Amino acid sequence: MTVTARRAVLLLTPIMALIAAAFVWPALRLGRISLVQASASGAMTDAVTVANYTTFFTEPANLELAANSLLLSLVVTLATLVCAYPLAIVLHRASSRWQPLLFALTISPLLVSSVVRTYGWMALLGDRGPVNALLVAAGIVPEPVRLVNNALGVAIGLVEILMPYMTLSLVAGFGRLDVAYEEAAASLGAGPVQRFRRVVLPLTLPGVALGCGLVFVLTMSSFITPKLLGGGRVFLLATEIYDLAIVRLQWPTAATLAMVVLAVLGLTTAWFPRLTRRFD
Amino acid sequence: MTRSAALTLRGVTKHFGAAVAVDGVSLDVAPGSMLGLLGPSGCGKTTVLRAIAGLVPVTAGTITVDGEDITARPPHGRDIGLVFQQYALFPHLSVAANVGFGLEMRGVAAAERRTRVAEALAMVQLSGLDGRRPRELSGGQQQRVALARALVIRPRILLLDEPLSNLDARLRDELRVEIRRIQQRLRITTVFVTHDQAEALAMCDVVGVMSQGRVAQIGPPAEIYERPVSRMVAEFVGRLNTWPCEVVAPGRIRLDGREMPAATDGVANGAALATIRPHRLLLGGAAPAGALNHVTGQVTHVAYVGDLVQYHVAAGALQLRVEAHAARHAETHRVGDVVECRWWPDDLRVFGA
Amino acid sequence: MVGTSRYGAGAVVVALYLFLLAPIAIVLPLSFSGDSYLSFPPASWSLRWYVALLSHDGLTGAFKVSVALASVVTALALLCGTTAAYALARGTFRGRDALLALFTAPLLLPSVILGLALLLTFSSWGLLGTYPGVVLAHLVLCTPYVVRIMTTALATLPPGVEDAAATLGAAPGVVFRRVTLPLLLPAVTASAVLSFLISFDEVVVSLFVTGPRLVTLPVEIFNYVDTRTDPLIAAVSVVLVAGTLAGVVLIERAVGLRRAVGG
User: C147 vs A15: CB contact, 8 Å cut-off?
Assistant: First the structure.
């Protein structure tokens, strides 16, 4: 069955209208507004200027925001990788009997709103939460430590929230990993450490690059978890965009920040596949 | 180049949960010889091979190489070369790096490594392909790389897990000869797992036929083929006519109402099965008369397959499958011809029913 | 290759799964807390937060808004997505791959940035804080998944069945109604449930395009948690998780979770 050109146009009209109105035009408008002269009153003019960008790159506070965001994204990406890698290996190797259950366990958090999960972490990590209760009971710390309303809490929450994405990306990239390669390496005299370093790791690098790229992007643009678990004390590019747009109503500046974030993410996604190709 | 070692298995048993994959297998492979493990899929032959390599921990039994017990050793401490059925070449490494991998694990210096990798690749006739990736090679070339990779470490034992099963027929014949040539030149003790009886008979010094986790029979190829100890072994190593019969006395049976001599080999009097290979049935008057058993029947089907002509012959209640060489001047029978079919009594082997 | 290290590895995996599920697991006991602040284990137990939830006009109102919104969005996403997928899968015109990339591109844009872009556009169109605006915003997030699921489903349709129906005398419309659509039913169900869940859970873009007069449930929860922390939201969460679970069972029955999410 084929669809004629006239009928195809008819079928594609609804989605074209949607994409044009709610994606293409807004994206263009975002770029345009980042080039608008921002006045203190919030009023906008039609003049085109790059002043917002020069202000961004000369304002130390903005650069600190960018540094915070990049640092948090790197730390969270690495920590998520370390946590998700064993799960991905287990998922990849699980027998057909266990795999569906483990798979369901891995993705089930994705189906729960990140607001709810962040709220769960606030309860877990709070001064009167079970984590502090355990730490005190085990004698590791004399009194409850501050695990929320700071960058540590934000990082813990983000790692958990992003773990399913990382795990799925890793598993998707593990296509070439076969137990036979490890067995072959073992029969050639490679011990467990050498098998991991020389065979498993190189074969899983495509998955690692995929997952790290995705989690980096998601961390850079996350703001629900930083806002709630950070308790207003963790300042990142994404939380700043929200503040500028909703609270302070400085839209040109918000748009400029958004364009900067997009540029960083664009560079990252362009760089990660190159990392993979080197090992292919 | 290689030290010839003796491989011994004693009572090797492997359970997977409740299932018994290997059930008390004992084997001796003489230094420098090649043992073929033959059997249908699921008979446990690959499990035995993987147990020797250390990839499957055994439930009971011992595995020794030159008298040294290696049962508890991890696979990377066994010094055993293994060629995998799917080759398992590392996809992220070049041919040279694949072959050199085991040497690197043994701390062999780079210069010597290069020499030995080059030697190994020359041995399998792949010189010059060092820089290629496995996926750039044909199936036969990948197979050769896998062989070179297993041999370059000068293992005490070489294990081959159905190494030819993924190749087309012509390549298989070619590599069969080549593997045997290399094995004999290196005098390396080898265990070869296959489900192809022709491969096992053609390549190996000794063939072990496995069934349901046990070794049903082990011996030189001719002995396995000519004097199988059971109907299962007889059927697995070649085509077979099987007829119900009755043993009336040692060396005598009643077949389709007629008494005749046969090789009963201790089968008790009573109902039994008489078996004979199709090519041991001789048609027409070309065969010497006298000491031979014979029946008269009618040809019901003829199939000309080039080097052979296959006939179906109905003789009384017996259905005979007969194979004759398609020699240039040999007489070819047609459907409906009445033919005399003869055989030597000791070719008619009787097994308990 | 079996040894004590296997048990160590097993313990690590169990610990990681506990970590992954902990924030969801803790809300259940917490929702039965009798305390007026977040503490675990609670000093006392009660159903007071469920009672409070029922009488909280902001939350119940937002719940109704979210259900209505998700229903409308799901219907429209199925319409836009399925027609597009059909044209892409059955059309012979050039540039189909590029169009598919364009239709799924909104998923690549970080939701903070998409939210901001929509805010900037809708403000000049007067759509902020209105149903049409929020529906449009959610639609652009849900439709790409529908397109993806439906193109995959169309591509994996048994080859020739539609042609067979046509040779038996069915007109194109009849072929679609009697053959194509029934075979696509699992994918349609999966798309519908997924769209509903995405719209119902969506918070980031909603924060930008909703207003005081139109608040969705996740936005209401976000605003609540941003200002106060008490077990009320635990009770809400338990209700949401239970509802999601029901949706998941529906998808799993229809097509299997992995295919629905993997696309």
Answer: yes
Q: What ipTM was reported for this prediction?
A: 0.85
In whole angstroms, what is the distance from residue C80 CA to residue C240 CA?
27
What is d(CA A216, CA C226) in angstroms, rounded to the nearest whole number?
Answer: 25
C92 within a domain of the structure (yes/no)? yes
B37 with B161, same domain: the answer is: yes
Query: In this complex, is the C-beta atom of C184 within 8 Å of any C-beta atom belonging to chain A?
Result: no
Is residue C164 in some structural domain? Answer: yes
Q: For residue C232, is it within any domain? A: yes
Residue B90 lies in a domain: yes
B305 and B219 co-located in one domain: no
In angstroms, rounded to a whole number, what is the distance separating the alpha carbons of residues C138 and B328?
83
Whose structure tokens read 């970080």? C110
Between CA B8 and CA B69 the distance in angstroms is: 9
Q: What residues make up the domain containing B38?
A: 7-231
CA B181/CA B84 separation, integer angstroms = 19
Q: Domain for residue C3, yes or no? A: no
What are the backbone angles phi and psi of residue B6, rounded to the nearest 5°? -95, 135
Q: Does B148 touch chain A (CB under 8 A)?
A: no
Strand (E) positions, B221-269? 241-249, 252-255, 258-261
pTM score, two decimals? 0.77
CATH value at residue C85: 1.10.3720.10
The span from the CA of A237 to the CA of A71, in Å, is 12
Please indicate if any CB of chain C lies within 8 Å of the CB of A30.
yes
Distance from C-alpha of A240 to C-alpha of A236, rounded to nearest angstrom: 6
Q: What CATH number corresponds to the domain at position B300? A: 2.40.50.100
Residues 85-104 in B contacting A (C-alpha not used; CB under 8 Å): 86, 88-92, 101-102
CATH number of residue B132's parent domain: 3.40.50.300
Closest CA to C117 of B325, A147, A23, A39: A23
Cβ pair B74:C1 closer than 8 A: yes
Chain A: nearest CA to B171, how far in angstroms? 24
Domain boundary residue, one of B215, B231, B247: B231
Nearest to B92 among A186, A189, A279 (CB): A279
Find the length of chain A. Answer: 280
Interchain CB contact of C77 with A (< 8 Å): no
* pLDDT tens-digit map of B142-190: 999 999 999 998 999 999 999 888 888 888 888 899 999 999 999 999 9
Token pair 């003790």 is found at B189
User: How many angstroms separate the CA of residue B10 from the nearest CA in chain A?
Assistant: 22
Based on the structure, what is the number of domains in chain B?
2
B1 found inside a domain: no
Q: Do the Cβ atoms of B54 and A185 come within 8 Å? A: no
The tally of domains found in chain C comes to 1
Set of chain B residues whose Cβ sits within 8 Å of the Cβ of A279:
92
What domains appear along chain A, each with residue ranges and CATH number? 60-277 (1.10.3720.10)
Pairwise CB contact (< 8 Å): B105 & A280: no
> CA-to-CA distance for B280 and B259, rounded, in angstroms?
19
Looking at the structure, tell me whether residues B314 and B171 fall in a common domain: no
pLDDT tens, C212-227?
889 999 999 999 988 8
Q: What's the distance, CA B185 to chain centroid?
A: 21
Claim to verify: residue B75 and residue B188 sit in the same structural domain: yes
Instruction: Say whether pLDDT at A41 is over 80.
Output: no
